[in-house]
Amino acid sequence: MNALSKLHPVTKAVYFCTAFLLILTASNPLISIISLCGVLLYQAACSRRAFFADLKLALVVTVAVGIMNSLFSHYGMTILFAVKGVNFTLEALFYGVNQGVILSSVIILFKILSNNSNASGVMYLLSFAPKFALLFSMVLGFIPRFERKLADIRDAQKALYGYEERTKKDKLKAAVSNLSALVTYSLESSIVTADSMKARGYTQGKRTMKNYPLTLREVCIILVNTALFATVLYFKISKKMLFIFEPEIYFESFSIIPVLAFSALILMPAFIELWEVFLWKKSTLKA
Fold first, then answer.
1. What distance in Å separates the CA atoms of residue 141 and residue 21, rounded to the nearest whole number?
2. Whole-number Å distance between alpha carbons of 10 and 217
3. Do 89 and 75 meet the contact criterion of CB atoms below 8 Å apart?
4. How far apart are the C-alpha atoms of 18 and 109, rounded to whole Å?
5. How far is the C-alpha of 18 from the C-alpha of 227, rounded, in Å?
6. Which of 7, 22, 73, 122 could anchor a disulfide with 92, C-beta 3.0 to 4.6 Å?
7. b/e 70-109 (16+ beta carbons within 10 angstroms → b)
8. Which carries the bigger pLDDT value, residue 140 or residue 53?
9. d(C-alpha 28, C-alpha 100), whole Å
10. Rounded distance between C-alpha atoms, residue 100 and residue 69, angstroms
């Protein structure tokens, strides 16, 4: 279990909401690069394999989005080359790369959120709407179950029929058969789940949920997170960190304060994880 997953659900909700909002609305390449470095550093602190997998994903997404934007958008004044009268500009390529970095950061941040969330925490956050909370947590659980079940169905089909020297028609029939089996499994699973919930008394009225005590440490993290978010948001709204992508690339206004504030916010999970590792190693040395 990671240190981030042990935090209070409200603390995690505040952090991820503010992080997502700033990454998606900053429109600043420096903020985009810092966000990608921050999420990759957290993955490196948790798992070396996850770090290299996400680094590869980030490179592929960034290059793909950058090339696609430069192919279909031709704004800007700095012409890199021209093909049959169509100008390919540095500004279009740069903007596409920036959007690719943002998309990569958001994808990896979603993975971090998924790895550090659980059904009880979701139901605690949505306790004001218990039916929606239960439905939402069940959907989150069904998605990985269906992925594993589909892999099992494919393995069974491969063991029965094999994939060598098969036509496209045979592959299409196998795909339809796999989908049919998966739909049948999902319907049966939903009926079993409904009967199981009814047998456990979910229709008999209100149910208590797991309680999460809000400690002083959690309150401090929330306050620091909110202060950092407010700082970056203030400079964003007041246009004191404005970056121009077209017709030329340049900083219209720049301040180091929001950059430092955003760096501290995005690096907070990595710091929490590394601090937990430090305390663990310190305790083992004393023992």
1. 26
2. 13
3. yes
4. 12
5. 11
6. 73
7. beebeebeeeeeeeeeeebbebbbbbbbbbbbbbbbbebb
8. 53
9. 13
10. 10
Q: Are 57 and 104 in contact (CB under 8 A)?
A: yes
| Contacts (Cβ under 8 Å, ≥6 apart) of 219 | none
Please state, for a pLDDT cut of 90, what percent of the chain lies above it.
34
pLDDT tens-digit profile of 122-139?
A: 777 776 666 666 666 666
Query: Do 93 and 80 contact (CB within 8 A), yes or no?
Result: yes
pLDDT at 166: 66
pLDDT tens figures, 81-122? 888 877 888 898 999 999 999 999 999 998 898 888 876 777
Nearest Cα to 104, choosing from 50, 37, 48, 16? 37
Q: Which two tokens stand for residue 202?
A: 């979910």
Structure-block tokens of residue 150: 């589909």
Q: For residues 251 and 240, is the Cβ–Cβ distance under 8 A?
A: no
Examine the pLDDT at 161 and tell me if it is beyond 70. Answer: no
| C-alpha to C-alpha distance for 242 and 237, rounded to whole angstroms | 10
Closest by Cα among 19, 215, 36 to 113: 19
